[in-house]
Write the structure tokens for this entry.
Amino acid sequence: MRMRSVRTLASALALGASLLASQALAKSDITIAMQLEPPHLDPTSAAAQAIDSVVYTNIFEGLTRFMGDGSVAPGLAESWEISEDGTVYTFKLRDGVTFHDGTVMDAEDVKFSLDRARAEDSANAQKALFAGIETVEVVDPLTVRLTLAEPNGNLLFNLAWGDAVIVAPESIENIKTNPVGTGAFTFGNWVQGDSITLNRNPEYWGDQPVLETATFKFISDPTAAFAAMMAEDVDVFDNFPAPENLPQFEADPRFQVLVGSTEGETILSTNNQQPPFDDIRVRQALAHAIDRQAIIDGAMFGYGTPIGTHFAPHNPAYVDLTGNSAHDPEKAKALLAEAGLPEGFQTTLHLPPPSYARRGGEIIAAQLAEVGITAEIINVEWAQWLESVFKGKDFGLTIVSHTEPMDIGIYARPDYYFQYDSSDFQAVMAMLNSTTDPAERARLMGEAQRLISNDYVNGYLFQLAKLGVARAGVRGLWENAPTAAIDLSAISWDE
């Protein structure tokens, strides 16, 4: 009788273990933490990285898309043909694609999306991506023809941006709060100030993801981020905001730490039209007042690569121009005196929430004070930054990481928030956009980098590292960030 009880207990334990294993195998939900909450969910009408982090490829898709290694792959367009003169692109769309509301995605939607993005009254933050498109024509329901004013070697790259995703006229009115796309996940719900939930799309045209649900949790405070991760309240923290805690995660077998690169050029953005920053000598003084390595060490605990221009060091066309703005406080003081400001001056320093900005801003303010520049720190939330700095251009200095891929072209836009206006730079970018030869493109990209470095448009600080923390069983996360995205399609749990 006693032996039977032992066997029964053993059987029960085995059954329980089997059930637990089955539950582990069946795990199909995940909670991913982010530091910033999106202001809304329309990637085609705002510059906020947090929007793309949630919706890129998950909810919305473009004709082309970025992969985790930075390559451009077919998206809603399964193929394309380019005319011999490089001015006509004919895209063949995938058949059988539907939006989440059941409406068919076809060439009319592509035309609507691209015409909306390039319209005169467009709110698209990257409207310049579409400037060279003269016409968008519907050839048939599955064929779209784009005619360009001149050849553009960047077109397929440009169409992969989150700003170029395909949307539908039927759902455009509520896109900011109820996004309807063609992606592998549908919008579930949004608890403002807390989280956004996405659900697997059973009608997705491509491979079905393993995950059934994904919750994006917003945790802005670095201390709270550490606590939530250690308590396993969240499974992944994308761009973990407290690099000083990474050694603890690395030593804990419950976690994995992913260190990669991003497209994020972190810069001390300067209002080039606001005195005294309209004087190149003052901007040069700023550049020499900054000690990049001290900022990387103090704010990012050593994670980050120094840059001397607005270009990613991992790009083959990168030119190392850090020596052009080496830390030299005495030279900075001499330049200020030469500009008629021997006693220095006062300005504002707007800091959005990310750690690189808030922590880096304190260090930079102290460095500027050493040469006589008093920077009043103004901490702002992301929505305030977008409104007052990015749109309103009401700032002296600010710190932000530009995470869009190979976005040096923003310096060719005089109305962009740092208001740099150089006909020489604009001419170089025009040549680059019309050039397809790889060697010539690399040469022109080098020239563009040198121009903005020599004009000291902004203070070029460092390339933002991608610092992710996840539970040990999570697989399929992007190690690098070729664009702002948390692509859910390949994420799964160990069996």
Remarks:
- The two ends are 38 Å apart (CA to CA).
- The chain has two domains: 29-254+476-495, 264-465.
- The CA atoms of residues 412 and 426 lie 5 Å apart.
- Residues 2-25 form the longest helix (24 residues).
